[in-house]
Amino acid sequence: MAAGVGLVPWTAQAAGSAAPAARTVATPDSTKDLAGGPASEKFSSPADRTVVAPLSGAGTEGGARTRVAGSPAPAIELDAYADSAHRIQLTTAVTGAGDELDVTVDWGDGTEPTAAGPNYHNLVHKYAEVGSYTVTVTVKDVTNNVQAVNQLKVVTAGTEFTPVAPARLLDTRAGIGGAKAQVGGRGSVSLKVGGTAGIPAGVSAVVLNVTVTNTTGAGHIAVQPGRSYVDPTTSNLNYAPGQSVPNLVIVPVVDGWVHLVNSGGAPVDLIADVTGYFTASAASGYTTLTPVRTVDTRSGLGAPKSKVAGQSNLGVAITGRGGVPKGATAVALNLTVTNPQEAGHLTAYPSGQKAPSTSSVNFTAGQTVANSVIVPVGPDGKIVIRNGSWQPADVVIDVVGYYSPDSQAALRPVGPFRLVDTREDAWFRKAGPVQARQYLPLPLMGDSPAPADGWALNVTVTNTSGVGFLSVSPDPNTWPDYQKGIQVQPARPVSSALNWAAGQTVPNLVQTSGGKGDVIDFWNQGWQSVDVVVDCLGIYEKD
Known about the structure:
The protein is an all-beta fold. It is about 0% helix and about 45% strand. The strands form nine sheets. Strands 4-11-10-7-8 form a five-stranded antiparallel beta sheet, with no helix packed on it. A four-stranded antiparallel beta sheet has the order 3-5-6-9, with no helix packed on it. A four-stranded antiparallel beta sheet has the order 12-19-14-17, with no helix packed on it. It is elongated, with a radius of gyration of 26 Å.
């Protein structure tokens, strides 16, 4: 269920003070460590890599010191792992040395080296920028007149975003990115993303708008890291016969690859359009916003009060309003189409560019469909929404966050893994749907030192018996407030994360703050109960 791995637990710093605890997600078996997975591996440099040399310094004759004959050679074993986006925990073990030791750690980022205690000790370091660094540990053994050095290359778990103009990487209908053939029932297709369409070979995670189409049965699609098939325990898209369903996906990349699994029983076509990628290098961090409605063509908010005509464009000013500053490189939106008069699609792309042959939202006549979109911002601070159908449709845009070089939160890709499915018992609640006009508070953290700066979640609503929409917002309470019965009533939000009709199962990617206590509320804004499923895709962190 969780993507954690067994790692060296924190004990104490060399100076005796406690280190920050690793951020964990609350789960049925207490806490699952999120430090593992493709974006946060353990780094090791064994003791036999230690380089030993005579200790330079003044001897009795004014020359260099010589190693004491027969003295032991110090050995340094190094282990490290990233327990947050910017932070590394380092364990050093020094053996075979004398009693008088001078141990220093150079973190490789130009900061002042850290003086450490002898023998076994733990240290924590926060890097100002995500990236790769070489940690150098030097032990000066004055007793035996020797110096030992070992080095360890570490990579932060945090990654930053680079937007790209939407480009099609996969279309099984046309043989783009793979064979020109449908993906069979219980089958999968591997997709090379590293080194493709301007995406670097060492990419950590990729943002894809994935669409399933030409469906003849019901099922779901799971997008997973790497090339190896793993029986899915989560889902990204759900479909019924005859449906074309899109959803935005943030997925870790392993060795340049991801793969898409069709868990239905019948063949389907799959399409994947890239809009950006994450790397462990300085680019654009993320800032979460309280959802702000910036465009609603039904009321004339942020655009003319009229439907967007078929085969036409709607220019939308993004920067300088709704909390998005000038200099933002990309914006995270919830894009909704409503009142369409015939089937078609919307495409969101940066201003100043030709409309790409990609899609952001697919719809049929009369449908209300929402999809999460991450769109690069054009040089004039605008984006464009194109109505690809031949008839008018209304467009609604809610801004949920933005990416910029000044934003400090980096994405730590995790999982994907399931946080809650209201059809099943969870550690914090019994199985049961979210009742009409009520909300589900979801506690996301265990014994966390501080709340995360944002969450990337795949949210699905199922077992619907009427029309409605789901709102997602940070809770003003902490989970202990709920446990003590002293929580305050959260304000009902007005923005929508996804919309449904009777009998539909609808997914959407949601990026949201967890508030002061990493509790997120999922509001059923319909008049009948629904079940809610939430999968974790990543955490945005400043530390």
